[in-house]
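Request: Mind sharing a record?
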Amino acid sequence: MIPTDYYIFLGSGLFIIGVVGVLTRRNVLIILMSIELILNAVNINLMALSQYFKSVDGQVFAIFVITDAAAEAAVGLGLIIALFRNKETVNADEIDLLKW
């Protein structure tokens, strides 16, 4: 049996890697992948704490996080394709559609 602490440390490590990826990268695809990594880290922590407290609440909430991640991926990739067709770049610094 693997202790719950290991799962918490794994989830925390993945969360930190995801946050660093969002804050340091400029490619929109990598930013979206980092957000997915953050959501997966949250799911690991939800599952570990659900097992630790012997409750199903964390598992149910993780299902909602998974559906949110799938919707975010679908909408995000659609936006990236539309931006690439208009601007021909996926660099976050060069996308300035909201400027006047």
Q: What stands out?
A: The chain has one domain: 4-90.
